[in-house]
Automatic annotation (TrEMBL):
<dbReference type="InterPro" id="IPR027417">
    <property type="entry name" value="P-loop_NTPase"/>
</dbReference>
<dbReference type="InterPro" id="IPR002789">
    <property type="entry name" value="HerA_central"/>
</dbReference>
<dbReference type="Pfam" id="PF01935">
    <property type="entry name" value="DUF87"/>
</dbReference>
<protein>
    <recommendedName>
        <fullName>Helicase HerA central domain-containing protein</fullName>
    </recommendedName>
</protein>
<feature type="domain" description="Helicase HerA central">
    <location>
        <begin position="142"/>
        <end position="401"/>
    </location>
</feature>
<dbReference type="InterPro" id="IPR008571">
    <property type="entry name" value="HerA-like"/>
</dbReference>
Amino acid sequence: MSLFDYQDADALGKVTSVDTTNVIVDVADLEALKGLQVNRLAVLQSSKLGQHLVGLITQVTRKKLTNIDDSQPEAQTELNLCKVALIGTLLDRDGENHNVFRRTLESVPEIDANCFAMEGAALTSFMRVIAHATADGSSLTLGRYTLDDQAIAYLNGNKFFQRHAFIGGSTGAGKSWTTAKIIEQMAALRTANGIVFDLHGEYAPLQTDGISHYKVAGPADIEAGRTIQDGIIHLPYWLLSYEALVSLFVDRSDQNAPNQAMIMAREINAVKRDYLEAGGYQDVLDNFTVDSPVPFDLDALLKALNDINSEMVDGTRGAKQGEFYGKLSRMISRLENKVLDRRLGFLFQGGKNSLRFDWLNEISNALLGATSENKTGGVKIINFSEVPSDILPLIVSLVARLAFSVQQWTPSDLRHPVALLCDEAHLYIPQRTQADAADDISIQIFERIAKEGRKYGVSLVVISQRPSEVNKTMLSQCSNFVSMRLTNAEDQAVVKKLLPDSLGGFADILPTLDTGEALVVGDASLLPSRIRIDEPINKPNSGTINFWDEWQDDVPEARLTTAIDNWRKQSIQ
């Protein structure tokens, strides 16, 4: 049965002009013309049986005709026109499948072919078809169409995550609400698997079933001895790659930096070997490398580096300074200072517990577990709010690398997909021109995930209020875009360049979108859609404060005292 069951009497008008992708329709009824809106969908009769052409209304005009012949009183005095850009074909049947939409033009309409407005139930049914969605509650939905609030906006959940996605919008445009809406629907799935990088703790209110909350350990958590069972995670130094360790400990401006990096690689390899030999892990010992996630004793590494830095060797005239005497001093000093820095306790002060060989299994089960058993919800929200900003890119990318590596080394028949939702992505995946040493490591990891993640079942959802500052390679790999209001011209230009050329000026509406409205384009929706996002069940702490109202209320007495105390302790209580 055909999805569209229009009658001739329902037609807006008839086709008067056709070119390759654009059609001009003469709208006879003035009231019908008044009801048309740009960017609304329209349906046209095809020259082929069993097909309908779908288009986007791009222009509506009403022109008064001049030089009317007075001898013909019934002559038309005005010309009501509607311009439609053809964007695809709906086939009533394709093999054994019914109502199949293709983003190609199987034909073009004939002159005098009828044109119909796509509204209400017809629009809902059509969007359900193109998203391969059903009304059983398992579809990914964001809200309702702005131009027709009776039509539910369905997205194809598979394609949304398969092809990577971007969610962007200026501050206050509704970006966090949209993300929360997606997270809630992910969490409702039986074996969802997702990690949310929450930099400011704004997703803490999301407390539904299927969501677990973790926080990277702060100074107070270290002091209290909180562990992963308490929702506190440590990310021990030995989990960092060799390059990440070098960027953390070696100052690139030091003239001895090449020697320091070389010795660091050699000595880390040695202390890892010692750990494996002491534990009897011969199978790992036979194949490990400097980048293998093997625990090692940091005190032993420091002792070895100090020995090399102060080594004396035999010379022709007695003892003399070794080859690297004094050349490691700055690196050792940096390392010791980092170890003593309470802000970095999550890296260096995890105690003996984080040196256990099976610790990696424990944290992987917590962060990549796909069920709600043992308090490991399908969606894991990780709070990075107490991580120092100078090493934030390194630590966020460490978690991303953990997820990617686990997926990469999982046999394909055992692999379970995972999505990484990267909130405030411009802070840790910046443009290469703005990157420093820590950023370089982060960019390399995320670029690799963007390019190769699909084959290993790793998806990225890039979320940012400044797309112009996000790494271009990351954005170029995204095939789905949920763009909220963007007021900055540079940000608008970035999004417009990433959208398909066939959409023309559809992205021009970006600065005019209302709060909570989004332009959705990509493989998950096939057609460009303007959507009003539904309110999430639990609203995130997006940081939007009603200044005028707050200034009329009483001020909490302990406000400044608490802030200063937390500042000194480097922890929010």
